[in-house]
Design goal:
- With 144 residues, this protein is mainly β.
- Helices cover 13% and strands 37% of the residues.
- The protein contains 2 helices and 6 strands; from the N terminus they run ββββββαα.
- A 6-stranded antiparallel beta barrel has the order 1-2-3-6-5-4.
- Strand 4 (65-72) and strand 5 (77-89) form a beta hairpin.
- The longest helix is centred in the C-terminal third of the chain and has 11 residues, at 110-120.
- It is globular.
């Protein structure tokens, strides 16, 4: 049994669910809902090679398909991809910058993804707005 004392401090293992680091950008983009071809967003708040968070006031649902177009890199390359709504931000938490949707890219090809990843290495990540979740299984394994 673990006895807490001055020499044994329990260290929590933090959990990282992200495959890629998000980067804070104020990027102009065009997000069009595939169902009716209506423009739903013009501004990306952050981006990664796997997806982006875009500001929108449109009522959308998780799973809806979108068409995304944006320019990035110093060369001004266009990135066009299909995406699906992965999450909806209602803008009620402290630190939220209003209503937004998280998009997951579905058809961004490997070369474009690699180019975007290289470009984003120079951009700082956004400040975390909440603490990282604790991986309880890994924490217990580190104790025994």
């Amino acid at each position: 049994m673990l006895q807490p004392g001055p020499t044994s401090a329990l260290k929590f293992v933090r959990r990282n669910d992200r495959r890629e680091v998000r980067r804070a950008v104020g990027l102009a983009c065009t997000v069009v809902r595939e169902r009716d071809f209506r423009v739903v967003a013009h501004q990306a708040l952050d981006i990664s090679p796997d997806g982006m968070l875009v500001s929108t006031e449109q009522p959308l649902e998780v799973g809806e398909n979108m068409i995304v177009s944006f320019r990035a890199t110093q060369l001004g390359l266009w990135f066009d991809t299909e995406a699906s709504v992965a999450r909806i931000v209602k803008g009620r938490r402290d630190g939220d910058r209003g209503a937004a949707i998280g998009l997951s890219f579905s058809t961004l090809d490997r070369v474009k993804r690699l180019i975007l990843r290289g470009h984003l290495r120079r951009v700082p990540p956004p400040l975390p707005r909440r603490t990282q979740r604790i991986d309880w299984t890994a924490t217990i394994r580190s104790v025994i």
